[in-house]
Amino acid sequence: MDVKKDLFGKNAAYLKEEMKVTLRLFDDKPLSGSVPKRVICTVKETPPPLKGVSATPVYAQFPFFVLIPPQLHIFYASTWVCYMREKRALLDNGLTVKVPAFIETGEAILVSTDHDSYISRAKEWHADT
């Protein structure tokens, strides 16, 4: 069945030849369409990886102070925060997503179509997960 791209809304950018999609029909006429929740895209353009940056997350300790009423005692504490270094990547479909700093131009990545976000390298993904 041939349908117009506008049935897919913002996710029309993810459409590819021979992709399996879901259509909602009423009286055999398409009302809307949806793409898979995860699709493989190719990174068309991204800055080169930074030297020394790996897939290992960075941990940083951040101090904070808490005032406890009624005597307004000051309590010092700290917390550890884990984060990945990120950069922007232009995909083959024209969308831009944040990717980890180690991703390079030409790599295939798995993208969430719900959130337009990086999930993993495509070779790390298996269809049964």
From TrEMBL:
GO BP annotation list: peptide biosynthetic process
Coiled-coil region: none
Domain Elongation factor P C-terminal: 39-121
Cellular compartments per GO CC: cytoplasm
Origin: domain of life: Eukaryota
Any GO molecular function: translation elongation factor activity
InterPro entries: Elong-fact-P_C, NA-bd_OB-fold, Transl_elong_fac_P/YeiP, Transl_elong_P/YeiP_CS
Database matches in Pfam families: Elong-fact-P_C (PF09285)
Protein name: Elongation factor P C-terminal domain-containing protein
Organism of this sequence: Trapa incisa
Taxonomic lineage from the root: Eukaryota, Viridiplantae, Streptophyta, Embryophyta, Tracheophyta
